[in-house]
Structures are given as structure tokens and as C-alpha cells.
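Box 3.1 A note on notation
Throughout this textbook, protein chains are presented in two layers. The first layer is the amino acid sequence; the second is a C-alpha cell string describing backbone geometry. Keep the layers aligned when reading.
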Amino acid sequence: MMYKNYTYSNQGASFRYWYCSKKKAPLHCGAKLKLDNDRRIKSAVTIHNHPPPKFYKTNDEHYDVVSINGKKLIMYKDHTYSKKGASFRYWYCSKKAALHCGAKLKLDNDRRIESATIIHNHPPLKFYRTKDAVIEYTLNSVSYEILPSAKGKKNLILVQGHTFSIQGGNLYTFYCSKKSKGGCKARIRLNSDNLITRGNLYHNHPPPVLRRTSNGGVVIIQKGQNYQTPNVCTCSSSIHNVEATWPWSKDSPSRGRANTLETGIVRVNCPRSVKQS
């Protein structure tokens, strides 16, 4: 329901009580309406703690359907929207989860745009098509974490819960760690300042389960296998990271509680007080 430029939704079995669409977190708006038996407004609390949404009805505006990594998206006014759930009618900004963007579309039964809330809290993406037909787009203010590997191994970087690695000669392009085994096309590109500038963060698989040790090490977890976390290096040199192989032998000097391991590789702090070059 729209009343004085604000939207309200009915919550519960009764048709009489309608609450501001921003009732839930983070705004907790207290505006509400009460209807009589003839569905006319009987009383209203219309003090909102937020501005009204930019909202309009339309059934003739054009939008495009694009496919990124096999996932269909609606592109409308330079922004992309993804479908949540089984219904084809409701589409939400692709940045809803990452940036809590509230923009959304509602389609009618003929799949035309019936209504739209198009205030975004981020700029639109700029899209690129790569030589291998992967669509990339601009990535602004996306942070990452470097996960050091053992000597001679390539470092991983962690972005939004997924791990990426260099695969090939380009030192500024990182591909999803599941590219080879899972065919995932997600990737990111860094500039000369090591900032993420563009890429594709649509994965065809859930993120790995990660656990952090008390000293900042990162362990990738998978059910059904065990590993032990070795003691932390106390040498005077900087903290090192090494790879430990599965399974651990019974004679291993390393000690720790049993856990589970995904890949057969555990990234932990150096277990011995030996400086590594």
C-alpha cells in the first residue's frame, strides 16, 4: 500500500494493520496504518525516520536479461537485479547482500515491470566482455586479504569469502580457486596499486568454510578429514606461513586438536623456531 509517498505492508492474517516497509532493521520505522472494516484508513501514525522511496508504476519500460556465469540477471537503467526464490516477479539489486542496497523490481504476469524502487546506494557497474566470453564489471571499494602460502607456492587472496589465485603469467589477474576443478569463472583484476578494479564475483559454488587460528592463520575446512594445528613459531623473525600435508604421521612433533580439512593443505604459522629464507 502507498500512502503519502510511503509504502506499507500487511503483516499477519488481519487486513487491518499495515506497517511501514522500513519497520525492520536497520531503520525500525514506527509508522503504521489501521484500516476499518471497509478497508478505509481509520487511524495513522505517519512520522517516518527516513525519506520516502523513489517509487513509480510502469508497464512499458524496457529492460534486458543478461547471463553471467549461467545466472540470469535483469539489467535496468544500468543496474543489475537478481531473482530470489521461485517466483519470477520479484527482483532485487545484485548488491543487496554485499552493500544492503534496497533497490528492487516487481514484474507483472506478462513479465513487464509493474513497479520499481530504483534508489541505489552505489554507482552502476560498467560491464566488459573478455576474450573467453566472461562478463566482467567494475568493482569499487572491494577489499581483499592475502593468504600467504608456503615457499614456492602462489599466494591466495580472499574476497567475500572465496579464494582466488594467479593461474598463468598475468600477475594482476586472480581466478577462483575452483576454476580448474569446478569450472568457476569468477575472477578479479588488480591495478598497479594492487587495488581491485574489475572482475566477476558470481561463483557457481558456495564459498569454502574457513577457520582462523588464534594467531591469524587460515585453515580451509571440509567434512570427513582430520588435521592438527601445529605450535606457533616463537622465533625472533617475522611470523612465517607454511603448508602442512595430510595425513599427519603419528610421529609428527606438531600437536593440536583434531579438525577437518578441505584440500589436504593447512596454512598455519611456522611450527619451528627456524628462520626461513
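Helices lie at 96-99, 179-182. The two ends are 67 Å apart (CA to CA).
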